[in-house]
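worker-03 picked up job from queue 'complexes'. Input manifest follows; two sequence lines, order preserved.
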Amino acid sequence: MSRPARAMVATAGVVLLMTGVAWASGITLASAHLGAGAVSTPAMFPAWLSFTNKSGNGTVGKVQAGDSVTFAWPQPIDETTLCSGWSNSSSSQSLTLQWSVVNGASGADDTLQVTGSSLTCATGFHIGVVDLGSAGYDTGSTSIAFASSTTALSVAATSTTLTVTLGSQTTGTASVVSSGNAAVWTPDAALKDRSGRNCGSDLAQSSTTVQF
Amino acid sequence: MRNDLATAALTALIASLLAWPARAAATAMGPSPKQVGSAFTATSSCGSLSGVGVTWTVTANVVTTVVLTSIPTSCIGGSLSLTLVDSSNTSLASAGPVTLTATTQTFASLTGAATATSVAGGYLSVVGP
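worker-03 finished. Artifact:
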């Protein structure tokens, strides 16, 4: 073999050897920050919000007497924080209150809330507010009020349920909503469970996008 | 002329030899590599995750949205994952990983259906930044 040929073979060997080294050093272990931790999840929160159209000839998407709304929590609430005149010694409570669908300002969604008062609940009824997910339930300038709505509480060992059945409509004009978004219930911070915890920023939303 | 032919032949041979390792590398990727490297590297957390706040939205008693707050600023840029577990530490639902861009992170969808009343706690993990 000539000298140039020997030189080229030697060069090739060196290159092959270097390539082999490159394979070995190609496996890299990268260090990183690895963090893990346990976090506490909410203990007191709104667990349920649903709407039921009145039985019989109710119009879906239109709030009217006989429609009902159900709120629920996953444990017994301190009943006195919902209505000051109620007591935890009783597992069921009921009173009549005025509930209204209030027209959202400047195109905002309409809301469902307590707009009346009761002597039993001297400091108010601390259920919170429900964003109905549409501005179309009340398109007038007056709230749609249901003055004598049955507001019933049922407390069990691991849950509390509030059912509101709307009474006769006293003001406003209800419109029909055909499409919208889920309703969202924002509980009142004053309402607490029996360990003194409120719902914080936790929310409940309906599984329906058209209410009532 | 004779040397030129020899040189050309050797060049072709060398080119073949250089190409050979590439094929060999591909076929060597099997369950029994001939060379295995290992190393130890210390890791650390981007920050304390115990102070992270959890709030959620529940639909028909199922957790549908989770919002994490007070995430350490030093974790921004890391990859965050969340797992919700029951009282037996069994996973009910998970979310992520997502790259953190702020100290608040919203998970608008979760994998798995976590009944809110069954959730006993959660675990966070952050890889990086």
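worker-03 released lock.
Chain A is about 15% helix and 30% strand.
Confidence is low (pLDDT under 50) at residues 12-25, 27-31 of chain A.
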